[in-house]
């Protein structure tokens, strides 16, 4: 491995052995030399480019002082690739044993002595297990030197150390690709902005008493004392009237970032709070309150907001930390900092979304040490509990263990059932903002479900489902796209156009503005294209769920992913196996999977049905929701497309509503012109009948379409009811 050869040479230089690194034969000179930069003036370094560094080869000698540094390439988080052979904790343990490196099991990481520090003398009993290796990904972090990297990086460092008969290796030997000028400038600007905000903000203790009370009222922190705010280093930024929460990190606990929370009054007198972080949220890895944690602390309370963390600390005296992205994500890079705790109590909020996130995060942290606080009227979020005068210590003591047995009685399910009955709207899931008609039928987007989506060829399935997913992603749903039919560039172009709701080809001057906003969305793409093995795809999905807490996966589409190579194998059996695997993944990972499947070829004048989905009936049987994009190919007037909800396992409501495609913005969510019929079908399970309810959607439009006479509702049996409903709907369009 060329990286090992480079590390060996760099290690020799740093150890002062006088060894000259050998250039790997398969790399060009400029790429190899780009890892080394002489101690030049930083301003002069910017004028150098790889071809220019080639002529500096003769100047690189051991006698020359070298400036070694480790930098990160520009964040490529939106592209997810996965190795052919996924890493397992067994592989990691076997490798460490083969190299005689001691380790012991942690909750989410393996603990080993750091190879980047001199080992303690034998018999001293001061072995420092400060190297943490993630059991799932193999990524490592040395908490003493803050060196981090991938599993391959750690293997290379170990090989270099053993080949040179050394007991440790310099932390500076682990290098990365140098930052580009744009990345350097962006990072420098971010740090300047952090320092500007921090220096311009003032502690609340320096404000007048009237101002302090106004700020506390504005942010609903009246019960937090000035001593608590000072303890956590909270300040007030007057220009934007924002609370400033600092991020102190590194070996020197220096200022690395800030989070600003602002309050604004809406026209309906509602107070809306907005957050902003510097650096951007993808690079903001702050466990708020971490500098206050002692080495001997064994219990911690994790919250979803900084204010909640301060409320817990003030009311109970327990160590408390706030996650940087609230309930949306728990980055694995933070797990080593939580390894010291034997008990972790998750109190992320007072709604059902926080409860679902608590159960997901507990899997990363370790079920055996995790306890959850169930939301309820008497157990709101910590800040509200403090404001209501509740006993926070008693609430934490009453937390329930995350681990459960395979068999339970109703006694264990009782509170869960009550929670669903008391929070009907939250249990229904997240609602779409662009498709209100879909909310009326499906009620919302829920985790752990499988949605099958089909439609005629060329009807716009990918275009619709991209807006369908974009709507949810804009509301904070971590989304992973697996596009096996079209490449990621084209898909991203479609989604960006839908996001901006305009043709950016005609407004290129606005591209950077919209691209910057689009980049902040929790949106990720798989790099697969064409036929792929189902195991590889599932491993990638599981990898993404662990790293980025993905809660919505789109597979476009099943036929392209299957391919046509194994013609001797029963393709229907293969398809059934894949659908079953996606069903199991959605349930076990608490992740919604949207699966696009092409239909069988039907005549142009016939509408698609559930039976039109290609393959056996397993797709519709396993699915929680079945959506069909209907298209009248022989019609050109508005209303030629409609979306039919053919199955809804949540509450049984099915129906169909019209769509109108806007070619400029590539959206289906534009207001539908004219007077249309929305049919909502409710299934009566006792009598096996369906009652058809018709509601008119009236909109202001002078060119209203003349509606057809509504058919009289009749009681029919079985699938004939749905067929009559869809036929009637087609006539009304």
UniProtKB/TrEMBL annotation:
The keyword Isomerase applies. It holds the Pfam family AAA_25. GO terms for molecular function: 5'-3' DNA helicase activity; ATP binding; hydrolase activity; lipid binding; single-stranded DNA binding. One of its GO terms (cellular component) is mitochondrial nucleoid. Gene3D superfamilies: 3.40.1360.10, P-loop containing nucleotide triphosphate hydrolases (3.40.50.300). It is a peripheral membrane protein. Keywords: ATP-binding, DNA replication, Helicase, Hydrolase, Isomerase, Lipid-binding, Membrane, Mitochondrion, Mitochondrion inner membrane, Mitochondrion nucleoid, Nucleotide-binding, Transit peptide. It is found in: Mitochondrion inner membrane; Mitochondrion matrix, Mitochondrion nucleoid. CDD domains: TOPRIM_primases (cd01029), Twinkle_C (cd01122). Mitochondrial helicase involved in mtDNA replication and repair. Might have a role in mtDNA repair. Has DNA strand separation activity needed to form a processive replication fork for leading strand synthesis which is catalyzed by the formation of a replisome complex with POLG and mtSDB. Preferentially unwinds DNA substrates with pre-existing 5'-and 3'- single-stranded tails but is also active on a 5'- flap substrate. Can dissociate the invading strand of immobile or mobile D-loop DNA structures irrespective of the single strand polarity of the third strand. This is Twinkle mtDNA helicase.
